[in-house]
Amino acid sequence: MSLPTCVAWRHDPIGKDTDPPTHLALCGGDSDNDGWDDEADCAPYDSSINPGAVDVPNDGIDQNCDGHDLVVGTGVIQVTLLWNNDDDLDLHVTDPGGTRIWYGNTGPTATGGRLDRDDNVFVCGYDSEPGGVENTVWDDGASPLHGTYTVEVYEYHRCAEPANWTVQIRVDGTLVKTENGSGYGRVEFDY
Questions:
Q1: What is the pLDDT of residues 126-153, one digit of tens each?
Q2: For the domain with range 75-190, which CATH number is right: 3.30.230, 2.60.120, 1.10.1760, 1.10.3470?
Q3: Mind telling me which InterPro entries this protein's record contains (predicted)?
Q4: How buried is residue 61: exposed, middle or buried, by Cβ count under 10 Å (0-12/13-18/19+)?
Q5: Fewer CB atoms inside 10 A, N or C side of the chain?
């Protein structure tokens, strides 16, 4: 997608500058006040959908206007990490037997757990999709252990401001826990 090329300038009379400046006009306006011109925004009346939004996986909605919904693995257990910038965050999930799934051990493990999406590896300033998503899943038919699972969020590489993140935990497709944070985080859940 390319940004529109119609930009109109109005020069304020000398000594009559306005605050804020009003000399740049957008092509189609910004109907939903999300900071994206209506000509570039695929949903100009919904501020949660624009080319700068993080695409929430598997919800059937194209939040970032790239033409499709982000799809990640689903199953018996699904742990999804979402964040709002180009930072490289890492999702680590440790099962009750002590097996850790992360970018250094993507699986599948003996119980069927695997990291199916590792995002934002060295993309500071040039990520083609806003934000980041990592996902660990035990597919349908897998045999996850019963007990307490530990989920950790690590900040592997910071581009600028610390990322705000959300961890979503689903069991058999049902959202059972959501945790928000910034920087390092640790969440536990029982299966």
A1: 777 778 999 999 999 999 999 999 999 9
A2: 2.60.120
A3: Put_metal-bd (IPR021655)
A4: middle
A5: N
